[in-house]
Design a protein that fits this description.
387 residues, alpha/beta, seven-stranded parallel sheet, three-stranded mixed sheet, 37% helix, binds nicotinamide-adenine-dinucleotide, binds sulfoquinovose-uridine-C1,5'-diphosphate, Epimerase_deHydtase, NAD(P)-bd_dom_sf
Length: 387
Amino acid sequence: MRILVLGGDGYLGWPTALHLSQTGHEVAVADNFARRQYDFELGVESLVPIESLQTRISTWHRLTGKTIQAYIGDLMEADFTYDMIRDFRPDAVVHFAEQRAAPYSMIDRKHAVYTQVNNVAGTLNVLYAIAEIDPEIHLVKLGTMGEYGTPNIDIEEGWLEVEHKGRKDRVLYPKRPGSFYHLSKVHDSHNMEFACRIWGLRATDLNQGVVYGQQTPETALDDRLATRFDYDAVFGTVLNRFVVQAVLGHPLTVYGKGGQTRGIIDIRDTVRCIQLACENPAERGEFRVFNQMTESMSVADIAETVARSFPDEVTINNLDNPRVEKEEHYYKVVHSGLVELGLEPHLLSDTLITSLFDVTKRYAERVDLDAMQPRVDWRGALGGERR
Ligand code: NAD
Ligand code: USQ
């Protein structure tokens, strides 16, 4: 298949592009390097050094003989988006290209507006381009488990059968997310469902849990193919942060009681899920939703699992929670769709955690300890930096 990976320079987009190329697909990537720019803005960088997109692509070509085409531009620019889709003529578009950090979206008004405009308008341009150029193209879009929030009932895969006053219907599962970033994904989901229902597009919304890990078989082939590994309080995700903290002897930063439970997934399963979604497209007119996670864990359990795998003393520090979220709640998620397509999950294991320790030790001198402290506070209408 011809697969266009939007956001192909990012943490997940790059390993996904390599995996799809390795499994025989014709791959192109697109990116505007916004992610590299946020690093400059925040004064942080990936723990693992990353090469330019051009070096990554030429290294892959030298090692495997496979070619990945690159489109450098912004999805907010409709002309760029249309020209790219006309030029590459993909069978599937995999869309990772959004601002993806909840704390970044909660810094202030400017960052909230940027996040929602970038994410929602970028996706609208993609939907229009597909509808006008070739409605057969399958859109595989990264959503998030955080769209659902933490409801007091089981979380279904995107849709809910309801019975109300004796009548039945199938409706989009109600959403109650926890940040302006997570809300941008809810808005995207509604726009995609509308485009499928009204224009007959085909789309898969992958509500992914928190990703952990840094290597896939393809990125491990050469240091120049490495993907980023963020540990700072804005872009670092919880398990990756805890591993870096454990190696450095820094207390693990559990927000509040740590009872908040999340769906999690290994980066090796992320790339496989995308492959499965592309190779088994949704039907024309179908808005298909999968919950892309493999297990649920509370933040406290994640901290204890990391601490247990570490030979030295690791302390756990329960910080005042800078976010507004339930720290004790029901959490039961249906996530069978991707397993039915053939996913064989890697569950969190000591081996994975130990391999992350090795990556962290290798680059430990690059860590900026100040970047570990959460400074973005959800409270109050203005959110903003903690002083
Ligand atoms: P990332 O920030 O590393 O990658 C996103 C890429 O998209 C970046 O390279 C960025 O430069 C690019 N981009 C952003 N806006 C763009 C635009 N307007 N035009 C062109 N390129 C643009 O993020 P990631 O961790 O790889 O996440 C990828 C996707 O997966 C996101 O949509 C995110 O919401 C979703 N997701 C991530 C996780 C996680 O734990 N990392 C979990 C669930 C869902
Ligand atoms: N947390 C801590 N300590 C930390 C960091 C986080 O206790 O040092 C807690 C948070 O309070 C939260 C949970 O861990 O309850 C997850 O936080 P996170 O920063 O790992 O994840 P989140 O903000 O939800 O965002 C990440 C990705 C985002 C993706 C989402 C999937 O950045 O792109 O959409 O995970 S999900 O959580 O399923 O919505």
